[in-house]
Design goal:
Radius of gyration: 22 Å
Order of helices and strands: HEEEEEEEEEEEEEEEEEEH
CATH architecture of the largest domain: Sandwich
Distance between the termini: 28 Å
CATH topology of the largest domain: Immunoglobulin-like
Number of helices: 2
Strand content: over 45%
Structural class: mainly beta
CATH class of the largest domain: Mainly Beta
């Protein structure tokens, strides 16, 4: 397997032949790993920022709070004053192909709590100033409460399968004050491979809309929603609806654990 430096040498030789491989376009090969961490109460951890390009980068770190819409999209805001985050560095200069470990301590006045540490990558000019081209990558932290959620605080509503759109949809509602995680959602049927969606955290008082694209000729027969300590198996209606606008499925909104550069991605789940 070729090393990173071997790959870098090959890219250097290819740059004159393929302009799309220039360092400016290589900005989108930055990485932050891991993308998500979870702790019980306060947390202490680290993540790694990596410059995979052939030019120096400046990385600026900023913790932010966020909320999540029913379709899984995040809205960011300044860090809530009740959440306290200490970073080992607030910015770092990365040489080509260099990685750097960032350490942090996180605590909150009340639990649960959650936040994202955004790493903003900017190319560095030869003069030492940064270029006004930036990409932001997240490291998201969830601080869970001491006691697990009560299953009576989770409700599945509006569960239905449309024979017109071939979509199984439902709303998962957390009526309590605890943070929990949907481990897996699986739809199954007769003579059809099950469809599985990846898990995601479910914030206190939040509603999450789930859309499953079903490929079987017959409607699905079962829906299992697995949490840490229990599994819900809601019934659902089979209806014949007119076509409606497509909605994003839950696994697309999770922020994958690859850490690939995509400034529109929010790692709210894994």
């Amino acid at each position: 397997m070729p090393t990173m430096r071997t790959v870098a040498l090959l890219l250097t030789r290819l740059l004159p032949l393929y302009p799309m491989l220039t360092p400016s376009s290589a900005l989108y090969s930055q990485q932050v790993q891991p993308v998500i961490e979870e702790y019980r109460n306060k947390g202490e951890g680290r993540f790694t920022v990596t410059n995979s390009t052939l030019q120096p980068m400046v990385v600026v770190l900023e913790p932010k709070s966020f909320s999540v819409s029913p379709d899984g999209r995040g809205t960011f805001r300044p860090l809530d004053p009740t959440i306290h985050v200490q970073l080992s560095v607030m910015s770092v200069k990365l040489q080509p192909l260099q990685s750097y470990a960032v350490f942090y301590k996180a605590d909150a006045e009340t639990f649960p709590a959650w936040f994202t540490i955004y790493s903003t990558f900017s190319p560095l000019r030869a003069s030492g100033t940064s270029v006004n081209v930036r990409i932001q990558l997240p490291h998201t932290v969830y601080l869970y409460q001491s006691k697990p959620i009560d299953r009576n605080e989770i409700h599945i509503v509006n569960a239905r399968y449309s024979t017109t759109t071939h979509k199984l949809t439902c709303d998962i509602l957390n009526t309590g004050k605890s943070l929990t995680r949907v481990q897996e959602l699986r739809a199954s049927g007769v003579h059809t491979e099950p469809v599985t969606l990846s898990g995601f955290p479910l914030l206190p008082g939040a509603l999450r809309t789930i859309v499953v694209d079903w490929t079987g000729k017959e409607p699905p027969t079962a829906l299992n929603i697995a949490f840490d300590r229990f599994t819900l198996k809601p019934s659902f209606a089979v209806v014949n609806d007119p076509p409606a606008a497509a909605q994003p499925s839950a696994n697309l909104a999770d922020l994958t654990k690859t850490g690939a550069a995509d400034s529109s991605a929010l790692p709210i789940g894994k």
